[in-house]
Sequence to fold (702 residues):
Amino acid sequence: MNRTPRLLTLWCPDWPVVALDLPADVPSVVLVGEDVFACSRAARAEGVRRGLRRREAQRRCPDVHVVERDETAEMRAFEPVVAALEAVCPTVEVIRPGLCALPTKGPARYFGGDEALVHVVAEATNDAYRIGIADGRFASALAARRGAVVAPGKAAAFLAPLPLALLEKPALVDLLARLGLRTLGDVAALPARDVASRFGAEGIAAHRLARGLDEHLVLSRTAAREIAVEETLDPPAESVEQLAFVAKRLADTLAAELAAHVLGCARVLIEAETETGEKRSRLWRYDGAFTAAAMAQRVRWQVAGWLEGPVAERPSTGVRRLRLVPDEVHRGAGQQLRLFDDATGSVEADERAATVLARLQGLLGFDAVNLAVLCGGRGPTEWARLVPWGEPRPAPYDATPPWPGRLPAPHPTVVHDPVLPARVVDGTGADVLLDEHGAISVAPQRLSVRGGRPTAITSWAGPWPVHERWWDPVAHVSLARFQIVTADGVARLMATGEGRWWIEGTYD
Amino acid sequence: MALAETLVRPSTFLAPETLPVAAPLDALFPYGGLVRGSIVAVDSLTVALALLAATSAAGGWCAAAAVPDLGLAAAADAGIDLHRFVVVPTPGEQWAVAVATLLDGIGLVLARPPARLKASDARRLSARLRERRGVLLVNGPWPEQVDLRIHLAAGEWTGLSDGYGRLLRRRTDLIASGRGAAARERRVTAWLPG
Fold:
């Protein structure tokens, strides 16, 4: 069963710069904040790269033309390209300005094969863009980068040798690389069940992509379309600002509706219609699940491209109706849609925790994120062990029986590792020490911690003797534990042996 | 537009969403639980563990970050399900990022702030917290004002005498004070561990 659609992707490299429509020999960069987001070929030749700070870009290329990013303008500039594609196939979906895709099923048959379709599309768009065809969105997008047509059923083979970084999930990729995985083929070869249990939702999505499938299993389209939202504007809106305001409200409603159904929406159909029935509808795709803000932004792009686009295409009257239709939905809300509860148990909560923990391991290192397992042992540092998240947890040790010398609950809430050196004295100021029978002969009166001021001991109990490795004259440990409460109300778990005292734990 | 903003502001008469807290500690909280999106300072780890345990008992996830000396056996004693309790002992320099990341997917996080946490980092974290609807328990100094502060004012241990017995429980006097609805000081006497 192969329900992964075969798609043609059209991609324009450096679109944010291309959209500026400057002469090709002018070095230019587009900034997001103070960072270079995109640069022209001329700027790249001078050593400018994406991610540089503005100042560094200007140092490398002093006469560089600097522009703030304006996505609405980018989309406006992309509008004619989409319109040209729509003449070839009506179901074009826009992923972002400079990148769009269409299903090849109908058009390829009509034009006589994939190669012929590529030719038609290239001609319709003046040979200005890169075009690729493959099964599935991910493979199709990568095929476009290479200008390749991947044969039906060969997407996984096409992807296999490509590097993991193409997944564009930096934290996860970092983690996978740490585990010795290098290519998409390496990931695809992992058993799906293991990926799910180890890497959670993000891992499942990455695994699907690496195998040439779409990121999520798509649910029934008709069911999704039933939760469409729309608004009739009276009076009709003449400006992009007015429509953007309505769009925000509609997007919020739709996002809440999707969240209530625990659905993520990857493709939304946006329809705008004027009083006189002029209509502009467009499909928008989003990696993962649309947020309300992202949907509202798409509406803005679309109406800006219409109302402020080529004069000949502009509507003659104001927009009267705005409609948002979730066109493709998948199970499990995206990370942004969080109306459900993460503090009460659910499968979603487990999945979300798993995703976050994998991300955190990517950030801090595999060993930095742990679960605790109780184990045997007499000393506080031996009672529990940390196991990195994702590693199999050993069965918890039955911590109750027979550990002579081990104290029952409550256990100290603070475990000192290393231990705190201390001194315990009697009423005369003499050190209280274990005698040869493992007992103390006088009552301890005062405790000082780390050479600090002595505090009066108000109550105490012990000794709980410990004789570890008594058979071994070298490694043999002989010590005794005490519980001691001082006048400041602090309770300590202490140990003494070989003429010294130390604090192992504090009941904070 | 101003009108719309007024309309969507949540009604102040509605009680905020909370995470559960077991009796008798619930009496410390103006809404009977940990208000989502808030920062609560807790000076006693015993109290912190009791708060984590209530969420854990409801099936939720919780975490401890930068508390390397936390007694894990005590956490289990308190009733925390260790399968859903994440321990990040030493996030080091990445403290703020690590805590923010945890709060993306885990509802209740206990963390000990580094000595020189920047006020700007603290503010960014509380903004993230409000957005993510989680609760952050801080065990240590916080550079900004916290929403609620729970102070263990006095404690008296039972079970221990001069040379015999063992520690059993502690009768504690807890004081909660904060801002907003928590401005009125609340006091509770509780036996801990419960």
